[in-house]
Design a protein that fits this description.
about 110 residues, mainly alpha, about 60% helix, elongated
């Protein structure tokens, strides 16, 4: 896991499996998930604890990959918008037009 990942997304579908754990083991699992996300550290669990950790870890990895892809898409879209705005503003004369109030709206005259 990369150091910039700072979120753990847990799904309620995992609750049933976690409910079978003792409170102590559930606490160990939670700490192991934080250590995995923050430090890329894998726990030294055996048996069912490691199985459950692996299932949740896989979901965390998928969530982080989806978030990373979304960020990249958003960045690319922002760059496209910026490129469109900057080229349309300078397309006519090389400089953005400077409109003032009198060019946009006629003055009202008293009768």
């Amino acid at each position: 896991m990369k150091k910039d990942a700072n979120t753990i997304l847990l799904f309620t579908e995992h609750r049933a499996a976690i409910d079978y754990l003792s409170d102590e083991d559930a606490g160990k699992l939670t700490k192991a998930l934080f250590a995995y996300v923050d430090e890329s550290k894998l726990p030294d669990f055996n048996g069912p604890m490691m199985s459950l950790f692996t299932v949740i870890r896989t979901q965390i990895d998928r969530s982080h990959e989806a978030y990373k892809a979304k960020c990249e898409r958003n960045s690319a879209n922002a760059k496209k918008r910026f490129a469109v705005h900057s080229t349309s503003a300078t397309a006519s004369s090389g400089n953005p037009s400077q409109a003032n109030v009198s060019e946009r709206m006629p003055l009202l005259r008293s009768q």
